[in-house]
């Protein structure tokens, strides 16, 4: 599986690779030779290093799950219909991304023209006096837009320029001189970030741009034509893949950057509850009538899903000293006995649900059961990166907290922009997941400490990991380009605002 489709990526790796192939003798226990500046680079060398990474990945997986009999299997489904019974993660995937009923496909269809032209004009930082002017300007912009503003969308094109500079500095520190700049962006949206990065490289670093590749991975059929139109000026360097990252199966043996801006917050999550004695339950959504959201129930069963069990182990939650009963489930290949939860197995949405949830939250200290939302989609993406992008450098920016979240650890906010007048939109939050499927953006916060544990477990301890708030990251790595965001008073929103966002960046070691 590792070498499947590898030839597709080998040709553009290097000019003059054949001359270097004679130096590819295997040295060392892992079958690879240290890479130095004097070592010629080639497609064969990239495959050799990728093979060594695959051997390390299999060893990590064996060690991590050696006592678990049910860790293998499981997937994230892009279901056509809800059917009669569905896991919470598949329900979230359906509600956000179903091609007909999902929130984002409906949004893309409705605002196709704005997707092409852009939701936001560049912010005139140099004409703003300071923080007050900036916040007033931002409030007006958000009120006039049907989408939610984030730094990567509001700060264009400057944000793309700063990110491109970060890629160049990392490339100089970690890449072999013969290796090209390769970027994979997952969920590129309207393509504004990709366009600003490529424009900047073409103007400022033409020698890097000449050999660079920019790959876009997106599962929305409505975004693909918009991206092709917007990125037409860079068509020789852009490759668009209409596929979910969770279903990616082509090997990329070269060093590359994998970018996800506000990606993690919309990935499928599972909901579990657990008791103080360690017994845990996974939540399913069941329908009295097929596909009828008005007649759905939330049912709890003891955890047997392999993806949930894998996440609990990879994130360091499933250890000997905790979740003892879950660990026993792993050892016994699943326990079919279902213990009825304290508040009943079925929780049906009713007009009293808000009151019930509020009372339960207020009495949480006495609540026998606990609720957590697990980022299963995040872990599956890391597994894909570890297997098919073994030498990747990651860059992910997302929310570390949200307001108006529903109950549970890392619970999501259910929100939408409601149009109240011409070019006037107000944010509206909902309080129940099932009743508003496909009508609201389901946005999860990310626990970046837990994410770091998961990433290291799946992708390896040898990866260099940085997790910093958005302002702190750009203070450290922004360089001179951060001056583009300064107001007249010197106040800089790139370095002072957006503390609710965190940047998670990883680097592959220089000689591997």
TrEMBL record:
Pfam families: Methyltransf_28. It comes from the Eukaryota. One of its GO terms (cellular component) is mitochondrion. SUPFAM superfamilies: S-adenosyl-L-methionine-dependent methyltransferases. It catalyses: L-arginyl-[protein] + 2 S-adenosyl-L-methionine = N(omega),N(omega)'-dimethyl-L-arginyl-[protein] + 2 S-adenosyl-L-homocysteine + 2 H(+). Its main location: mitochondrion. Its EC number is 2.1.1.320. InterPro entries: NDUFAF7 (IPR003788), NDUFAF7_sf (IPR038375), SAM-dependent_MTases_sf (IPR029063). Keywords: Methyltransferase, Mitochondrion, Transferase. Transmembrane segments: none annotated. GO terms for biological process: methylation. Gene3D superfamilies: 3.40.50.12710. The keyword Mitochondrion applies. One of its GO terms (molecular function) is protein-arginine omega-N symmetric methyltransferase activity. It is found in: Mitochondrion. Belongs to the NDUFAF7 family. Arginine methyltransferase involved in the assembly or stability of mitochondrial NADH:ubiquinone oxidoreductase complex (complex I). This is Protein arginine methyltransferase NDUFAF7. The lineage of its organism: Eukaryota, Discoba, Euglenozoa, Kinetoplastea, Metakinetoplastina.
């Amino acid at each position: 599986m590792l070498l499947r489709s590898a030839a597709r990526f080998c040709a553009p790796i290097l000019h003059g690779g054949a001359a270097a192939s004679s130096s590819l003798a295997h040295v060392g226990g892992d079958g690879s030779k240290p890479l130095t500046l004097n070592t010629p680079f080639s497609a064969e060398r990239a495959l050799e290093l990728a093979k060594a990474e695959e051997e390390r990945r299999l060893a990590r997986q064996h060690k991590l799950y050696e006592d678990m009999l049910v860790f293998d299997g499981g997937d994230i489904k892009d279901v056509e219909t809800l059917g009669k019974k569905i896991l919470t993660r598949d329900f979230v995937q359906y509600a956000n991304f179903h091609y007909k009923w999902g929130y984002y496909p409906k949004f893309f269809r409705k605002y196709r023209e704005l997707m092409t032209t852009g939701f936001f004009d560049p912010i005139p930082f140099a004409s703003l006096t300071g923080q007050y002017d900036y916040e007033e300007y931002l409030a007006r912009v958000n009120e006039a837009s049907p989408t939610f503003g984030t730094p990567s969308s509001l700060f264009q094109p400057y944000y793309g320029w700063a990110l491109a500079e970060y890629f160049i500095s990392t490339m100089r520190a970690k890449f072999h001189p013969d290796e090209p700049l390769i970027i994979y962006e997952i969920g590129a949206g309207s393509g504004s970030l990709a366009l600003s990065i490529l424009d900047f490289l073409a103007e400022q670093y033409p020698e890097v741009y000449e050999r660079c590749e920019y790959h876009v991975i997106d599962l929305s059929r409505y975004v693909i034509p918009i991206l092709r139109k917007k990125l037409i000026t860079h068509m020789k360097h852009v490759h668009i893949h209409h596929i979910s990252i969770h279903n990616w199966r082509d090997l990329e043996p070269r060093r590359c950057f994998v970018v996800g801006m506000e990606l993690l917050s919309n990935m499928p999550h599972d909901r579990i509850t657990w008791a103080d004695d360690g017994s845990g339950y996974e939540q399913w959504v069941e329908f009295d009538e097929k596909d009828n959201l008005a007649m759905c129930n939330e049912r709890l069963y003891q955890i047997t899903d392999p993806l949930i069990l894998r996440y609990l182990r990879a994130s360091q939650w499933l250890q000997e000293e905790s979740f003892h009963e879950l660990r026993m489930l792993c050892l016994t290949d699943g326990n079919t006995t279902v213990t009825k939860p304290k508040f009943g197995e079925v929780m049906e949405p009713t007009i009293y649900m808000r009151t019930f949830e509020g009372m339960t939250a207020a009495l949480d200290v006495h609540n026998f059961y606990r609720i957590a939302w697990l980022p299963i989609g995040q872990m599956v993406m890391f597994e894909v990166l570890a297997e098919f992008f073994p030498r990747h450098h990651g860059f992910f920016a997302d929310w570390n907290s949200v307001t108006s979240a529903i109950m549970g650890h890392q619970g999501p906010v259910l929100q939408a922009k409601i149009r109240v007048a011409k070019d006037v939109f107000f944010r509206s939050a909902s309080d129940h997941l099932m009743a508003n499927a496909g009508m609201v953006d389901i946005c999860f916060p990310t626990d970046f400490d837990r994410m770091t544990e998961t990433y290291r477990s799946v992708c390896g301890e040898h990866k260099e990991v940085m997790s910093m708030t958005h302002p702190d990251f750009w203070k450290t790595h922004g360089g001179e380009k951060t001056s583009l965001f300064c107001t007249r008073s010197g106040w800089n929103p790139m370095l002072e605002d957006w503390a609710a966002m965190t940047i998670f960046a990883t680097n592959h070691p220089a000689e591997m």
